[in-house]
TrEMBL record:
<keyword id="KW-0326">Glycosidase</keyword>
<dbReference type="InterPro" id="IPR035398">
    <property type="entry name" value="Bac_rhamnosid_C"/>
</dbReference>
<dbReference type="InterPro" id="IPR008928">
    <property type="entry name" value="6-hairpin_glycosidase_sf"/>
</dbReference>
<dbReference type="GO" id="GO:0005975">
    <property type="term" value="P:carbohydrate metabolic process"/>
</dbReference>
<dbReference type="Pfam" id="PF17390">
    <property type="entry name" value="Bac_rhamnosid_C"/>
</dbReference>
<feature type="domain" description="Alpha-L-rhamnosidase six-hairpin glycosidase">
    <location>
        <begin position="1"/>
        <end position="156"/>
    </location>
</feature>
<protein>
    <recommendedName>
        <fullName>alpha-L-rhamnosidase</fullName>
        <ecNumber>3.2.1.40</ecNumber>
    </recommendedName>
</protein>
<dbReference type="GO" id="GO:0030596">
    <property type="term" value="F:alpha-L-rhamnosidase activity"/>
</dbReference>
<dbReference type="InterPro" id="IPR016007">
    <property type="entry name" value="Alpha_rhamnosid"/>
</dbReference>
<dbReference type="InterPro" id="IPR012341">
    <property type="entry name" value="6hp_glycosidase-like_sf"/>
</dbReference>
<dbReference type="InterPro" id="IPR035396">
    <property type="entry name" value="Bac_rhamnosid6H"/>
</dbReference>
<dbReference type="Pfam" id="PF17389">
    <property type="entry name" value="Bac_rhamnosid6H"/>
</dbReference>
<keyword id="KW-0378">Hydrolase</keyword>
<feature type="domain" description="Alpha-L-rhamnosidase C-terminal">
    <location>
        <begin position="158"/>
        <end position="231"/>
    </location>
</feature>
Length: 241
């Protein structure tokens, strides 16, 4: 932000502060022998959400990144049986980092898991809004873990803002085709008009992806086999995986 505003003194000060914080985290929270971040008060077990935070924030040393990511995914699937326990920041990072790096199908299984703690369990128990935590002990309408909504819009249907051109005049459409789903559909009312996107399964390896880009806007469509920029209006693709 300081860079965008031309605040060079603030930029330098904040860069130095960032460097100091990064060094402190590596010194006190990272165990290079185990390849894990355990926190300032270490837990007796490996916590995937703590390590997802580190991966998402880009603070993991490059030589450990792939190994730590692999360990996180294996822990969620094999040891936690598609469960994630975390708070507002770590859950947000989980639903951003993992889908962006090829694990959208795994995160969908985490969402629909009906065994506690999970969003699926909340629905099974009658929830129609998001509670504040993983049990109905506080507020029953709270956006504390609302990052799951982002996952639906951004990483399943694929409606994303172009961060280099804020405001949705430039749109990025990047869906993930979830194997256990038959279709996905969403829309977003941007300042330029309604953005529509949906996909449906034709067979095990074939999907249709279609929707509409608002007037005077353009979208970059990112699919497994192609990427292209389209103008406003309706669009449709047949996707073979």
């Amino acid at each position: 932000m300081a860079d965008k505003l031309g605040k060079n003194k603030d930029k330098k000060r904040l860069e130095n502060q960032l460097k100091s914080i990064h060094q402190g985290i590596q010194k006190y929270a990272f165990n290079a022998e185990k390849v894990e971040y355990s926190g300032l008060k270490p837990f007796p077990e490996f916590l995937p959400v703590v390590n997802i935070l580190a991966l998402d924030y880009g603070i993991v040393p490059e030589k450990y990144r792939a190994q730590l990511e692999k360990r996180v995914v294996e822990n969620i699937v094999e040891e936690k049986d598609y469960h994630l326990w975390g708070g507002i920041f770590s859950i947000h990072s989980a639903f951003e980092y993992l889908p962006k790096n090829g694990y959208a199908n795994i995160m969908h299984k985490v969402v629909v898991n009906e065994e506690w703690p999970s969003f699926g369990w909340m629905i099974k128990e009658g929830a129609t809004t998001l509670p504040e935590g993983y049990k109905f002990t506080s507020s029953d309408m709270h956006h504390f873990m609302g990052a799951v909504d982002n996952f639906f819009y951004r990483h399943i249907v694929g409606i994303n803002a172009d961060e280099s051109h804020p405001g949705f005049q430039n749109i990025i459409l990047k869906p993930n085709f979830i194997k256990s789903m038959e279709f996905a559909k969403a829309s977003y009312n941007s300042i330029h008009g309604e953005i529509k996107a949906e996909w449906k399964k034709i067979d095990e390896n074939t999907y249709e992806y279609y929707g509409e880009v608002p007037p005077n806007c353009e979208a970059k469509v990112v699919l497994p086999s192609k990427t292209e920029t389209i103008k406003s209006g309706a669009f449709k693709y047949v996707v073979n995986l």
